[in-house]
Design goal:
single chain; alpha/beta; Rossmann fold; five-stranded parallel sheet
Length: 191
């Protein structure tokens, strides 16, 4: 009899990649690409952050994420997109996740995410897997994109941070006089 442990191939490793994804960025896609080689299935879990005013409603975000993933054409784990409200650990339990994926851009992210990871492990018994983003995405965040769009950045400036589907959606909102982005860009007091 061998002392070599056998691998149980019946176990599926499902992880959730959580965030507000408001909007999804090229940095998010970079983290997801690398995570797809580590797990059997990934649920991109779009949550509502009550501390942030959203640029896109949940349904818009979910569709943009689906479109961006489909256009990315990366092999690896199957990916599905779901929205949720409430605690992330409750959602993780509901879908049977063994881990939470979090992207890390810098030491500030690491400090904040480490505290959450320890808490999630302590209260829910779920591990967190940190994936460091590529250096070209180290300063990209959804918050930055929302700020740039709200302050009237040219749409071409945003193209280096977001996938084409997000670029198109922001451009549409900037052209819509009924949307705050459109109204802001037409404000004669804004230079």
């Amino acid at each position: 009899m061998s002392n070599t442990p056998t691998k149980n191939t019946d176990i599926r490793h499902l992880a959730i990649y959580t965030g507000s994804f408001d909007p999804i960025t090229l940095g998010h896609l970079d983290v997801l690409r690398r995570a797809r080689s580590m797990f059997d299935e990934i649920v991109v879990a779009i949550g509502r952050n009550p501390e942030k005013a959203p640029l896109f409603v949940m349904e818009e975000r979910a569709q943009m994420v689906r479109d961006a993933i489909a256009a990315d054409e990366v092999e690896g784990a199957a990916v599905r997109v779901e929205t949720y409200e409430g605690l992330t650990v409750d959602f993780a339990r509901r879908v049977g996740a063994c881990a939470i994926i979090r992207g890390i851009r810098n030491s500030t992210d690491l400090a904040n995410e480490s505290q959450l990871a320890i808490t999630n492990r302590k209260i829910a018994g779920i591990e967190t897997v940190f994936i460091v983003s590529g250096e070209e995405y180290a300063y990209t965040s959804s918050s930055l994109i929302r700020q740039m769009a709200a302050l009237g950045a040219s749409i071409e400036q945003l193209a280096t941070f977001v996938p084409p589907v997000v670029f198109d959606s922001i451009r549409d909102k900037q052209r819509d006089p009924a949307h705050p982005l459109g109204a802001f860009s037409r404000d004669p007091l804004v230079d």
